[in-house]
Amino acid sequence: MPDFAVLAQGPALTTYEALSGVFGSISLAAWIFLLVPQLVENYKQGSADGISLAFLTVWFIGDITNLAGALWAGLVPTVTALAVYFCFADLILISQCVYYNVKNARGARKASTHSQDSAHEPLLGRQDSNLGLPGSHRRRSSAASGRRRASSLPSIADYPETSDVWWKNSLSLAGVVGVGVAGWAIAWRTGVWVPTPTKDDNGGVETALGATVLGYASALCYLGARIPQIIKNQKDRSCEGLSLLFFILSLLGNATYGAGILFHSTERAYFLTNLPWLIGSLGTIVEDVTIFIQFRVFGSGGARTYVPES
Question: Residue ranges under compositional bias (Basic residues) (predicted)?
Answer without folding.
Answer: 136-149
